[in-house]
Design a protein that fits this description.
heterodimer; A: alpha+beta; 3 domains; 5-stranded antiparallel β-sheet; elongated; B: mainly alpha; Amino acid/polyamine transporter I; 76% helix; globular
């Protein structure tokens, strides 16, 4: 431990000699063992210096190069040079600041010169990050295949590469009292509504956590209503998705160490847009967009409707289908809710199991779980075969959503609907739907209505929500971002009409 | 950030439409036909036009009265004490309307689908979403009304197959019942149109571009009239008048007899959808009533009165069980409605404007 004469000092100039300085630095960095303090000598000059750094954070090759360079140049000529990597500090530098810089990957060269300290910081952080590759959870067929990785600077690089405008603003915030994680708020200042930006900054500044684990962890503190089952920020790992949204007036937030960006204000329909829609032909894009939106209803309501029909409203089934359905349902000993729950939970189990297992084994589990259990359970007479069809269709529909968050929301929400259908039939389902609709209408993302082009109704919003109109027709930005800069583009098909003349 | 607590003209339009179109639509055809027989559609059309004219008068007066809450206007027109008293009467009237609406809703749903389910469960399932919806801001209710209006064209589309084998002879001879019967039918018509007065209460939320936006919304009754006429004519084309006077819910009977390839018995699905329409009507009245009591009792928010009002409606509804009692509760409605929706508002607005004029001089 420290010697008896140790007393805490605030800044560097309060220390008298090298020994004391080393003790102070060591004290402020918690006497950690990976803190390296090397004494350096040079024959030509009568001076002792130390170099202080935290070993794992430093690129050792670069450190060696810089040391060589500084020995040759500066120490001989005694000239102080600053560069983008080298910065000199005066001796009022506080130890707290010094340690903070050390943790950022800076090495300090400290020497005593004419009874005052000369301090130089050399920024040579070690940069290790995953290669830029396509995010596994958001794969697309055509278009860019680049996604974010765990390094914030690399992610910002990707965004800057795509939006080379002087209006792209990046604001850094340090989050976490212990982790001091860097985070970045990204927006385009001539498109985004600055009121929304301010509101978001206000929310970031009120975050008071020890460690900022991931974006998903912070999302709960930033969103408007964390008790809602619906995600209020669009979460993505794709840089093209982020830039697309930035250019529509939304803002993005990223955290160092997380490959994900959250984008707000998001609305319900944004979760059903995929970059694929824009890369293909617009008719096909519209078709798939509609298909996805229908899949939301199917995934939410199909099991509930089936249960309601079987247990309350059998007369809804048309005549030709009555007998096959009746035959399938008759021998089943359990109520339809129980049947559905057994199958739904089996599917959830299979899903959870395949995530944890390596790819080839996961496939086997899928086959065993899906085909074998599904077939056996019908043959054994526990579950009707119609129910297997219903649950399988529901499961497929729920995985169509391009966003994982919305996908889980839909999967969770169908259980209350199944319960309502069992208790009250169609009436129960309608009551559930009404409650859901009212909730969606009241929900806000960064203060903007969640169900935006529908409630409140914007005719122009239809062009890119349920439909995907040709890109040259989408000349205005969506209204729900409250952008002041509404005009997105001019008329790009002018040549067509010029030809006609 | 807060959304402005403001309603646009179209939103007000749909608010008024949804307040008018409720569960009464299903039984309206029978009620009018009993009185005006095969000239029911004339009664309905005249009623609609009269109410549309009344709304124009309201609009004219409102534009002169400025951006004021109707219930504050009551006080300004008649003085503090009488005004407060009248506002309390209004509150009672709203609770009465909510009660009737809740009762007739429960009646339809328990007669048509849920014969064995206890009535209190059906009521609770209706009242809980209503409370949740009404506790929001006026913009939320307006958006809900607007979104839910998608169901109205669905009904129109479902009824189109009726016109594959129409029987237009059911209308003839036109006007044979005589003016007396037709005018008598107006009373039953009024019941279907109740809710048009919500224009008075909701209009204070229209703030920007007031004149133009209010004008848009004033034509809501025209829309409702056309919609009702379509329903009535569709049922008259389908049913003979002797059938129509005994069929309680004509639209539901038509839908029941239609059969589609994918689903049978669309009436069940349709009635489940129509619950939402009944709900918006209830919610809008609940919102008005709770906001009025907020002002009346100087409360901070309109959420607590909602609980009290819904509780009162729920408990009273529990005691009115028999079919005869339910019909009995409704008998007073036309007379009361005329007082509260025609005479009082007209009187108040005129009184207020006259009174203010004198003051200004």
């Amino acid at each position: 431990m420290e010697s008896a004469s140790f007393s805490k000092k605030v800044s560097v100039h309060q220390t008298q000699n090298m020994q004391e300085l080393q003790e102070q630095v060591s004290y402020y960095s918690g006497n950690t063992n990976d803190l390296v303090m090397l004494q350096i000598h040079h024959e030509s000059i009568e001076r002792t210096s130390i170099i202080v750094y935290i070993e794992p954070l430093i690129d050792s090759v670069k450190l060696e190069e810089l040391l060589e360079w500084s020995k040759e140049m500066k120490w001989l000529t005694n000239e102080r040079v600053t560069s983008s990597k080298i910065q000199s500090y005066d001796d009022t530098l506080r130890f707290e600041q010094l340690v903070k810089q050390l943790l950022e990957g800076e090495a300090f060269l400290i020497s005593m010169e004419e009874s005052s300290w000369v301090i130089e910081g050399i920024k040579i952080p070690k940069k290790l990050s995953r290669a830029i590759e396509e995010p596994k959870s958001e794969q697309i067929v055509r278009g860019s295949h680049s996604g974010f990785n765990e390094s914030l600077t690399s992610n910002i690089y990707q965004i800057r590469q795509r939006l080379k405008t002087s209006h792209l603003v990046i604001k850094y915030f340090q989050i976490g009292k212990e982790s001091n994680t860097n985070s970045a708020l990204i927006y385009v200042d001539n498109i985004a509504n600055l009121m929304i930006v301010e509101e978001f900054i206000r929310r970031i500044q009120s975050i008071d956590v020890d460690v900022a684990h991931s974006v998903g962890f912070l999302e709960e503190m930033l969103e408007d209503n964390c008790f809602s089952p619906f995600p209020q920020f669009l979460v993505t790992e794709r840089s093209d998705r982020v830039t697309g949204n930035l250019s529509e007036g939304r803002i993005a937030f990223m955290l160092d160490g997380s490959p994900t960006a959250i984008i707000g204000p998001a609305n319900f329909f944004a979760f059903y847009q995929s970059p694929d829609d824009y890369n293909g032909r617009f008719i096909i894009g519209t078709f798939y967009r509609l298909l996805r939106l229908c899949s939301f209803l199917v995934a939410l309501l199909l099991p509930a409707m089936y249960i309601a029909i079987i247990s309350f409203h059998f007369e809804v089934i048309p005549e030709a289908l009555t007998l096959p359905t009746k035959r399938a349902v008759e021998g089943i000993p359990y109520p339809p809710l129980f049947e559905a729950l057994v199958l739904e939970i089996t599917i959830e189990l299979i899903r959870e199991a395949t995530i944890r297992l390596p790819f080839p084994v996961g496939q086997t589990i899928g086959v065993v779980g899906g085909l074998v259990i599904g077939d056996a359970v019908v043959n054994a007479g526990f579950v009707s075969n119609v129910m297997v069809i219903v649950v399988a269709l529901t499961a497929i529909s729920s995985f169509v959503v391009p966003s994982i968050e919305m996908n889980s929301t839909v999967r969770i929400l169908r259980f209350p609907f199944m319960l309502l259908a069992t208790l009250f039939g169609f009436y129960g389902v309608t009551v559930g739907l009404t409650l859901l609709l009212i909730h969606l209408i009241r929900l806000e993302s960064l203060g903007m209505p969640y169900l935006s082009p529908f409630a409140p109704f914007h005719k122009s919003g239809m062009r890119d929500t349920i439909l995907r109109m040709p890109s040259w027709l989408q000349s205005t930005r969506p209204a729900e971002t409250m952008t002041l800069n509404k005009i997105r583009q001019g008329f790009s098909k002018r040549w067509h009409y010029a030809n006609k003349k | 950030m807060q959304i402005k607590n403001e309603v646009t003209g179209w939103q007000l339009f749909y608010l008024v439409v949804q307040t008018q179109v409720g569960i009464g639509v299903l039984s309206m055809q029978k009620d009018i036909s009993i009185v005006s027989r095969h000239d029911a559609w004339i009664s309905l059309a005249i009623g609609g036009i009269l109410i549309q004219l009344l709304l124009m008068v309201f609009l004219w007066l409102l534009l002169r009265a400025g951006e004021v809450d109707y219930f504050i206007l009551l006080e300004k027109a008649f003085g503090q004490i009488i005004g407060k008293l009248l506002a309390a009467c209004y509150l009672a009237y709203f609770i009465y309307i909510l009660l009737v609406s809740n009762l007739s809703f429960t009646k339809v749903i328990s007669e048509w689908i849920y014969m064995d389910t206890p009535r209190w469960i059906l009521m609770l399932l209706f009242l809980i979403p209503a409370m949740y919806c009404a506790s929001g801001k006026v913009v939320h209710i307006a958006r809900f009304s607007m979104l839910v209006s998608i169901i109205l064209p669905v009904l129109v589309m479902l009824l189109i197959p009726v016109y594959s084998t129409p029987n237009y002879t059911h209308f003839f001879p036109i006007g044979s019942e005589g003016a007396g019967q037709i005018l008598k039918g107006l009373e039953a018509t009024l019941l279907a149109y109740i809710g048009f007065e919500s224009f008075l209460y909701f209009s204070k939320y229209v703030r920007s571009n007031r004149e133009k936006e209010l004008k848009k919304a004033a034509f809501s009754t025209l829309f409702v009239t056309v919609f009702y006429l379509f329903l009535l004519i569709s049922t008259q084309v389908y049913f003979h008048i002797e059938e129509l006077v005994i069929v309680p819910y004509a639209v539901l009977y038509i839908l029941k007899s239609l059969s589609f390839v994918i689903v049978d018995r669309i009436d069940l699905i349709f009635l489940s959808l129509w619950i939402v329409i009944a709900l918006t009507s209830f919610v809008n009245f609940l919102f008005i009533a709770s906001n009025e009591s907020k002002n009346l009792f100087h409360l901070k928010s309109h959420k607590r009165p909602i609980i009290f009002i819904v509780f009162a409606v729920f408990v009273t509804s529990l005691f009115i069980k028999e079919k005869q009692d339910i019909i009995g509760v409704q008998t007073a409605l036309p007379a009361v409605a005329i007082i509260f929706t025609v005479i009082l508002p007209l009187g108040t607005l005129c009184f207020y404007l006259l009174f203010r004029k004198e003051k200004e001089i």
